[in-house]
Amino acid sequence: MGDSITANGYVDRVLADDRVLVWFDIDNTLYPASAKIGQEMGVRIRAYVANLGFSSEEADKLATRYSKQYGLALRGLVRHHAIDPLDFDRKVDGMLPLEDKLKFDPSVRKLLEDIDRSKARVWGLTNAFLPHAKRVLQILKLDDLVEGIVFCDYRVKDFTCKPEAEYFGMAMKQAGLSDPSKCYFVDDNRGHVDAARALGWAKCVHFCERENLEGEKIHTERENGVVEIATLEQLRSVWPEIFVKHP
Ligand SMILES: [Mg+2]
């Protein structure tokens, strides 16, 4: 009897969880592009593709094309060259010098701490595989502030990734969400943000460096409702309703 009361109490709490969910992309969002991880990744991807028998020029073109076309170079490599994604993960993401390049930024930690957890859950939403995502969050000292991570599962044949609708649907399912109006999302990739927005994710933010003529960091809203920000701190003014109010 006691057990069933406990179980029902738990179910009631889950069903009553009407908090919104804030999805953070990880790479080049929770740390700045100036850390140049993207470049390090590019070098390793091109080397990997060249190793399949392409000239370095062809490798460069292919990697760029797949990255644009599929949101993730690896997606194209799996589809058209039948490569083993786990081998790719070991030789590309697994070899990135993250510990040397990434720096803990207390202001990003404070930003995540200041999200009111009685109103919002915080999850990661990445096109990387889980080991890389975890490694980044640990170095940035954010792992205890991110409650769940939706990642590309490189072990699954034909795994899905952003910006595919299926991927966003899978993310919501994993989080137990059915209402896209409860989704907040920030990503440095415009295509990913626009795709989520088109699916009805309510509060989509594109993180990109933008300055006005005076060199001031600005945020603007586009016609599809996506807001562009130049610093993560601007999330406090774009999404004031989910941050704790400091006296
Ligand atoms: Mg990113």
From TrEMBL:
GO molecular function: nucleotidase activity
Top-level taxon in the UniProt lineage: Eukaryota
A Pfam family annotated for this UniProt entry: Hydrolase
Coiled coil ranges: none
Annotated GO biological process: nucleotide catabolic process; pyrimidine nucleobase metabolic process
SUPFAM superfamilies, per database record: HAD-like
InterPro entries: HAD-like_sf, HAD-SF_hydro_IA, HAD_sf, Pyr-5-nucltdase, SSM1_domain
NCBIfam families: HAD-SF-IA-v3 (TIGR01509), Pyr-5-nucltdase (TIGR01993)
Name of the molecule in the record: Pyrimidine 5-nucleotidase
Annotated source species: Laccaria amethystina LaAM-08-1
Lineage, broadest ranks: Eukaryota, Fungi, Dikarya, Basidiomycota, Agaricomycotina
